[in-house]
Design goal:
Length: 330
């Protein structure tokens, strides 16, 4: 049996390129004691992949050249010599961009497919959904009646943040890069307003939609948009820095010049790394799957087929060509 592997072979300067990866085939290794073999069904294409292609360590070490590209994936256990895992179970974790993954079980989470299809365990019920849940509730601390502004709102993280904020009784405004994404936010996700940042003046739109200022800014985009949001903060505002996708391909990254607004607004800037909440995921999955089944929460997936499409699909995250949680069906 052969394993198809997407290996990182070059570190990009700027935008990800197809030539940064090589697709190779090699035999699946034999199982040792306490190992299990997973047949991946979906690979999760997350913006974090861009950072993992760089050299050095941030919150996690960059991928070594010539090795399997790191990514989340989900699949079924087809063989097990591990006492805690049985054949047939579905699991997800950092299993890499490959068709089969050997694992010692560390860091794997079980996917209860009664709570949602396997692919959802890489999206709204997986790492990005957990980011939305803990980033908003633990760092943003929303209160009923407050105004929440989200950048990159049509993605899996942003749209989930907005829907949780609506459940908590907030007014919700988001930015997205097309009219169809803005319509989705208002008509499907229940946002109060959506701003097409490519066509509208975001500062003017915020003054219209947030007359009392922004109480929580949940930032997925960074760059000049962060400055615009800072200029519109309400007193006591919380800024949650979740990501800065507009800056991942840039060196140096743009830093905010409006940061003194944090002083005058008596505000806070907080960063979130989802892995800090790993022990609390089960309670969040329980609550989110309940909201999904009650129709209080919607989610959208964008599925690309074929592991050899890995590089071109990753690029979609940075051009905005994905509409929903980007997945690669193996
Ligand atoms: N801190 C954590 O633990 C953690 C965990 C997971 C994710 N994140 C972060 O959360 C953010 C959203 O992730 P996601 O998985 O939900 O991705 P996503 O929003 O589904 O996909 C990325 C989207 O970003 C937008 N984008 C790309 N380049 C942009 C630019 N220059 N300016 C403005 N928007 C741009 C595009 O949408 P448009 O069409 O709207 O431009 C694109 O569709 C990312 O910043 C990611 O790094 C953080």
């Amino acid at each position: 049996m052969n394993n198809i592997i997407v290996a990182l072979v070059a570190r990009p300067e700027g935008m990800v390129k197809e030539s940064d990866f090589d697709v190779i085939s090699k035999p699946v290794e034999a199982l040792a004691d306490n190992q299990l073999l997973i047949k991946n069904e979906f690979l999760s294409l997350d913006p974090a992949i861009r950072g993992w292609m760089n050299e050095g360590t941030t919150y996690i070490k960059g991928v070594e050249l010539g090795t399997v590209m790191r990514c989340f994936s989900a699949g079924q256990i087809i063989e097990s010599r591990h006492p805690d895992f049985k054949e047939g179970e579905y699991v997800a974790g950092l299993l890499g961009a490959q068709t089969y993954a050997l694992s010692d079980g560390k860091g794997l989470s079980r996917c209860n497919i009664d709570k949602g299809a396997l692919s959802l365990h890489l999206g709204v019920l997986g790492m990005p959904g957990m980011t939305a849940y803990f980033g908003l509730l633990e760092k943003g601390k929303p209160r009923e009646g407050e105004t929440v502004f989200i950048s990159g709102a049509a993605g899996v993280v942003g749209s989930t943040v907005g829907q949780i904020a609506k459940i908590k009784g907030c007014k919700v405004i988001g930015t997205a890069g097309s009219a169809s994404k803005c319509n989705y936010l208002i008509n499907d996700c229940g946002f109060d307003a959506a701003i097409n940042y490519k066509e509208e003046n975001v500062h003017e739109a915020l003054q219209t939609h947030c007359p009392d200022g922004i109480h929580i800014f949940y930032d997925n985009v960074g760059g000049p948009l962060l400055d615009t949001a800072l200029a519109n903060l309400a007193r006591g505002a919380r800024v949650v820095i979740c990501g800065a996708i507009s800056q991942y391909n840039k060196k140096p990254m743009y830093g905010p010049s409006n940061y003194m607004k944090i002083v005058t607004a008596r505000g806070y800037i907080n960063g979130i790394i989802v892995f800090d909440y790993i022990h609390e995921y089960p309670k969040a999955v329980e609550e989110m799957s309940q909201w999904l089944s009650e129709g209080k929460m919607k989610t959208k997936e964008h599925v690309v087929s074929g592991i050899e499409q890995f590089a071109s699909a990753v690029k979609m995250l940075f051009t905005g060509d994905n509409f929903g949680k980007l997945l690669l069906q193996v």
